[in-house]
């Protein structure tokens, strides 16, 4: 079946899925393969659950021409279908990547735009070679904007995702010390993330950027289709947005309007500012921008504020790298509270830089005024200059239980693989 016919079948369906647990009636099931699974083996199960058709790449699972379509490679077919669908739609594609803050920024842009336009955005963290196609296939005939998040941990990944999404606009949140192992160091991060810039400049597309970020400003100095924002009133950016912290939350002042977010940490200022910038660029009325941003509240372990018994917990356990960890600690040091505890877990995927970067975080904490800094994980455990350190969760769990922390404010942060949210049950 060629891609045009497959696309027509897609339009007649209720959407696509790659997981039999989520099949809805009339879905098309793409039988993807992984290291520990083979979607082809679920062909009959998918049909039993109401799938309209199943896309497979092993002929032994073929049933009949009405229900099973054999292709050379299921994943490549999903990607081709997404790209074809993207080019049949009228939606404007805004893609974003970066080391920190991608998902929060995506949500803020989505909330600001959807007040005035029919807008969709990447759901959850579906931002890789499978997630981006699935996100693009959420675009409907009446969709006006699609905010597509792109994640990467090695070179050429963003370049490939751009070839599928073909974005009209783009934004890079920042260049940080994330996935150093895969990218080959910090310079590799800059090179890899900048593949979004390369695509946009090569195709004469518009780039939004943070004028205050020297790396981005210099990279884009000779490109003519840019639109910038700054947190400084004295900059030469296209838009200036003043931000401050009011009662722990970030507040933005723009065109004599105060926009009070539900986000803590000054590091979120640029995330809010770019959402205002993009919505304003596309002529969303200011009162609707304000409403959209003020309606967004973080979830899923991303800078969540949780009141638990007498303690206030800042749960930032979705992910961590040296850049985001230092920003979180700096912010926590400035947060009001007499009794302050920090519980941090290992930062993963740092390769040869892991020991050095973890030791640097330990050294930084000595300059802060915390009651205790407690670490979890083998990398932190091998660092010098700390007393409360635990290799495994059971040891930490026992220690925390004995501390009997009350009337305190607690920061919890670590890489996704550390599952730091488990501490909520103890605290």
From TrEMBL:
One of its GO terms (cellular component) is cytoplasm. Residues 97-278 form the Mur ligase central domain. Keywords: ATP-binding, Cell cycle, Cell division, Cell shape, Cell wall biogenesis/degradation, Cytoplasm, Ligase, Nucleotide-binding, Peptidoglycan synthesis. Belongs to the MurCDEF family. MurF subfamily. It comes from the Bacteria. Its EC number is 6.3.2.10. InterPro entries: Mur-like_cat_sf, Mur_ligase_C, Mur_ligase_C_dom_sf, Mur_ligase_cen, Mur_ligase_N, MurCDEF_CellWall_CoF430Synth, MurE/MurF_N, UDP-N-AcMur_synth. It catalyses: D-alanyl-D-alanine + UDP-N-acetyl-alpha-D-muramoyl-L-alanyl-gamma-D-glutamyl-meso-2,6-diaminopimelate + ATP = UDP-N-acetyl-alpha-D-muramoyl-L-alanyl-gamma-D-glutamyl-meso-2,6-diaminopimeloyl-D-alanyl-D-alanine + ADP + phosphate + H(+). HAMAP family: MurF (MF_02019). One of its GO terms (molecular function) is ATP binding. It is found in: Cytoplasm. Pfam families: Mur_ligase (PF01225), Mur_ligase_C (PF02875), Mur_ligase_M (PF08245). Its main location: cytoplasm. Pathway: Cell wall biogenesis; peptidoglycan biosynthesis. GO terms for biological process: cell division; cell wall organization; peptidoglycan biosynthetic process; regulation of cell shape. Residues 302-415 form the Mur ligase C-terminal domain. Residues 14-85 form the Mur ligase N-terminal catalytic domain. ATP binds at residues 98-104. It comes from Pustulibacterium marinum. This is UDP-N-acetylmuramoyl-tripeptide--D-alanyl-D-alanine ligase. NCBIfam families: murF (TIGR01143). Involved in cell wall formation. Catalyzes the final step in the synthesis of UDP-N-acetylmuramoyl-pentapeptide, the precursor of murein.
